[in-house]
Amino acid sequence: MRAVGLRTHIWANNTRSALLLAGFPVMLVGLIFGIQLILMGVGFLPNSGATLEQDIALAASMLTGTIPLALIVAGIWFAIAWFGNQAMIDAMTGARKVERTAEPELYNLLENLAISRGLKTPTLRIIERSELNAYASGLREGQYSVTVTRGLIEVLDRDEMEAVLAHELTHVINKDVRTMVIASIFAGIITVLAELLFRGLFYVRGSSRDNKNAGPLLLIGFGIALVGFALAFVIRLTLSRTREFVADAGAVELTKNPDAMISALRKVEGRSFVKAPDEVQGMFLDNRKEGFLDGLFATHPSIDKRVEALIRYGGGRDPGPLTEAARPAPGLTAVPVSS
Prior knowledge:
Elements: H1 2-41, H2 52-93, E1 95-98, H3 104-116, E2 123-127, E3 134-137, E4 145-149, H4 150-155, H5 158-173, H6 176-200, H7 214-237, H8 242-255, H9 258-268, H10 278-281, H11 292-296, H12 303-314
Parallel strand pairs: 2-4
Antiparallel strand pairs: 1-2, 3-4
Helix pairs in contact: 1-2, 1-6, 1-7, 3-5, 5-8, 5-9, 6-7, 8-12, 9-12
């Protein structure tokens, strides 16, 4: 049953990726239509001078000229994102590539895990920050990377670090990482276009008084902008929280050490925040925020629930949440990953 479940999870991720690719042009056309309505409402585009229905029909007819250009621009954006997604993510998080000579033990841990599954070793990257977090990225074989923060290296011991690397490698094996990167790329551009619609509402020119339908056109454009933001939000939520439970289980399967995964999560708990766009934060090992709404719409399950699952299904032991006094400070790890 485990193999069937894993195959189903991978199939679901592949399906999500295909739906995102197929649905993006449709969402893009809808947002372009909203932008045109806004521009008509503020007087930057001509209107029919008649009824609201005729103005909407005129905006729809304009799509025949704007859609090809928009799709070309989107295609260029996607090509840049496809080949340059890692550079974009590095720029947003401050990650840098490191070679084996710089972090030999860390690199060896990742390499051994990859070899155990017959995979090419992902590129190793480090974020020089004291926060404790990690993520996997990449779209295809030969492009995958695993990134960890300096704080994680200094606080976790060898077994805990191996568990975290195994967790991130499981995202690669399960194709989670590809879905997350595609969703980040598309959600980002949709959010930008929706923000353009919102900002258009604050630049109403005097010429808009010449169009008696300016108010309704702006309201419709505003509604489309809301839908755009909602779609970008839904795209992020397509990255089911289940993926983190599966990746935790994958880490246990790779390392045969549930206690190390539990201990790593407890050390990360409350110390994981790394400043980055929401789309990228959804890729992190932990992205838990406080508050009712944050919990309701969180991209990650809570550490308590993840630990509970590891105890129930992996047989691990929970040391319990760490107090501030018990938390190891960076640089004071008893059994460091690297010197």
